[in-house]
Specification:
About 50% of the residues lie in helices and about 10% in strands. By secondary structure, the protein is of the alpha+beta class. The protein has a domain of about 160 residues. Strand 4 and strand 5 form a beta hairpin. Helix 9 packs across helix 10 and helix 11 crosses helix 13. The longest helix is centred in the middle third of the chain and has 32 residues. The chain is globular and about 65 Å long. This is CYP27A1 protein.
């Protein structure tokens, strides 16, 4: 019996979050749904058939899967994004590709992307991560809100989002997460002041992952883990096991999900065994920490407390989800933010390092809104317009997630072609981000394009959706954004961020990750 199975039997099947999607909507001025439906029906009669959608032909049985192997022209790890851009140049803003048994339609027109989201119905359907689904079924665990579809998804989603999406709820944790970002600054300062450091922090990304884990722990566990220290973490410590487990999970997840054949579904392949071990590891550690939190809460029951922030207890108090489902959400929250938020912070710092004028403009905004030594709350964060523009522009150039995927429960006409219900539709936002018709000078890092009062503003809706859109928008979005904003504020407030050596590139681990971390930190006067 695995460690995880023993945890589950102790009444703690615990797990998922931030690939799900929420109810926040873009403010647009589009026609009513009924009008759109009638218009779609009228167009469908004149639309061209699905089989006429252009695209690469591929080989029998495997389709174009060979192109994504290490020997193909678009290796998954290093050039998956390149495939969407190159194929769009060749075939246009809609093309069809067959990957093994799966037919996939790729679109890169914002108006067609809007049409997909407007037609996703009451129960928006995403492609489940099959490896995660199989793992949880084997372990007899709840699937989690990101894997579920249909009525079960809606039931869980509508309950847990009450604790995840309210600005007031998220803002209550701003000062606690700010303390974590201050500690990251202290670590950077201490490490860069060492002789011969040259302002560099060896293995900086590991400290960023510690910061991400610590930041979400103050929310889910209502406590600090103490992992933001100058010393290396003990190999068997809870924090290091979580970080290592999540990293190994993503490394093997991309191999399983994009393997084409999916041999792991039938036999225990070497990659599956590594994936299973990683899942066991971080699930077990997260479950252990959550049990300790519950035990502490039970011991303190009835004891007065100054804090009204107890995320886990609020989550568990919901009577429309099971204990196991609520714990699944808490476990995944602990893990999901390590790579996703950590990598996003790295991309933002790199863009600022390579664009010192933007960094200086951000510094001036920070000092105007939050003078040195002043605390940060959600009200002050709401005044940071240039900061938000920096983050959006970084998402455009260095997306942590480069696309959104949906399956519709009805036929839809996209770019003049009928796309049948249940077809996998990939919305290639990363392609749109590279096109001058949507972003003048697309290769230039220009946060000003996102400021409403700038003459160059006016980015079209649905061109950039880093957290998705509609009912399945990333359920952890508000926590992730708050954590990211706090980290950027404190680092830029205290350091000039520079870069040394070859530019950062992205590698694909289902989400995008940096391939290097050669930052140079210079203390501000």
């Amino acid at each position: 019996m695995s460690l995880l199975q023993r945890v589950v039997r102790q009444r703690g099947s615990l797990f998922r979050v931030c690939g799900a999607r929420s109810l926040a909507a873009l403010k647009t001025t589009y026609r009513p749904q009924s009008t759109r439906a009638e218009e779609s029906a009228a167009h469908e009669a004149a639309a061209r058939p699905f089989d006429e959608i252009p695209g690469p032909k591929g080989l029998p049985l495997i389709g174009t899967a060979w192109d994504y192997t290490p020997f193909g022209q678009f290796p998954l790890k290093t050039n998956l994004r390149g495939s969407f851009r190159e194929r769009t140049k060749t075939y246009g803003s809609i093309y069809r590709e067959k990957l093994g048994p799966m037919d996939m339609v790729v679109i890169s027109d914002p108006k067609e992307i809007e049409k997909v989201f407007r037609n996703e119905g009451r129960y928006p359907e995403r492609l489940p991560l099959m490896s995660v689904k199989i793992y949880r079924e084997l372990k007899k665990l709840p699937l989690g809100v990101a894997i579920l579809n249909g009525e079960e998804w809606q039931r869980v989603r509508s309950s847990v989002q009450k604790d995840m999406m309210r600005p007031k709820t998220v803002g209550a944790y701003a000062s606690l997460q700010d303390d974590v970002s201050r500690d990251l600054v202290d670590v950077i300062r201490a490490l860069t002041e060492k002789e011969e450091s040259g302002g560099q922090v060896h293995n900086f990304i590991n400290y960023v992952y510690r910061w991400a884990l610590e930041s979400i722990s103050v929310v889910v566990l209502d406590q600090r883990l103490g992992c933001l220290t100058l010393d290396d973490l003990e190999p068997g410590s809870d924090a290091q096991l979580m970080i290592d487990g999540v990293n190994n999970f993503f490394r093997n997840l991309v191999k399983l999900e994009l393997s084409g054949v999916g041999l792991y579904k039938y036999i225990s392949t070497p990659t599956w065994r590594k994936f299973e071990k990683a899942m066991d590891q971080w699930h077990f550690v997260a479950a252990k920490m959550l049990r300790e939190k519950l035990a502490k809460s039970a011991a303190e029951e009835g004891t007065p407390t100054e804090s009204d922030t107890d995320f886990l207890q609020s989550l568990l108090s919901r009577n429309d989800v099971t204990f196991e489902e609520a714990m699944m959400m808490a476990v995944t929250l602990l893990s999901a933010g390590i790579d996703t938020t950590g990598n996003t912070l790295m991309f933002n710092l790199f863009c600022l390092a390579k664009n010192p004028e933007a960094q200086e403009k951000l510094y001036q905004e920070i000092m105007e809104v939050i003078p040195a030594g002043q605390p940060i709350d959600d009200k002050k964060l709401n005044k940071m317009h240039y900061l938000r523009a920096v983050v959006k522009e970084t998402f455009r150039l260095f997306p942590t997630a480069a696309s959104n995927v949906r399956k519709l429960d009805r036929d839809v006409v996209l770019s003049g072609y009928v796309v049948p219900a249940k077809t996998t539709i990939l919305m290639a936002h990363d392609v749109i981000s590279s096109l001058p018709e949507y972003y003048p000078e697309p290769e230039v890092f220009k946060p000003e394009r996102w400021l409403r009062d700038d003459e160059s503003s006016g980015v079209q809706p649905f061109t950039l959706l880093p957290f998705g859109y509609g009912p399945r928008m990333c359920i952890g979005r508000r926590f992730a954004e708050q954590e990211l904003h706090l980290g950027l504020i404190r680092i830029v407030q205290n350091f000039h961020v520079g870069w040394s050596g070859e530019d950062m590139k992205q590698v694909n681990r289902m989400i995008q990750a940096p391939d290097r971390d050669n930052f140079v930190f210079r203390k501000r006067a």
